[in-house]
Amino acid sequence: QVQLVESGGGLVQAGGSLRLSCAATGRSSSNAYMAWFRQVPGKAREFVGVISRLGSITYGDSVEDRFTIFRDNAKNTAYLQISSLKPEDTAVYYCAADERWSESEYSYDYWGQGTQVTVSS
User: Cβ(116)–Cβ(108) under 8 Å?
Assistant: First the structure.
């Protein structure tokens, strides 16, 4: 079992930046691939990126380079840094973890509660 707790969302003005955190606890959490997804109401969950324990990262095809994923293995925490925020970045952001690498939400067994990011224009 892996438990994920997200933090860092909120209301931000366009052009600002935000760092989301995802703290993992539980057995095997330190070895897990950790991914970020986001979802807008009425739309499918979108893959943002995934990072391995060793720091290898894959970003989603539609993800701009304003998004940066990194992790601190000592803290068992993954981060999603978003810069130059745009109103279209408004979404609920989820972190997920699994023992295998994947870009599909259906592959992930463990999920955070989600954190709302709202970008005002």
Answer: no
Residue 120: CA count within 13 A, CB half-sphere? 4
Tokens of 20: 């989301």
The answer to whether residues 15 and 84 touch, using CB atoms and an 8 Å cutoff, is yes
Listed in sequence order, the residues at least 6 apart from 51 whose beta carbon sits closer than 8 Å to its beta carbon are 33, 34, 35, 57, 69, 70, 71, 78
The b-or-e profile of 87-108 (16+ CB within 10 A means b, else e) is eebbbbbbbbbbeeeeeebeeb
Per-residue pLDDT of the chain (121 residues; tens, 9 = 90+): 899 999 999 999 999 999 999 999 987 777 789 999 999 999 999 999 999 999 999 999 999 999 999 999 999 999 999 999 999 999 999 999 999 999 999 999 999 999 999 999 9
Identity of residue 18: L
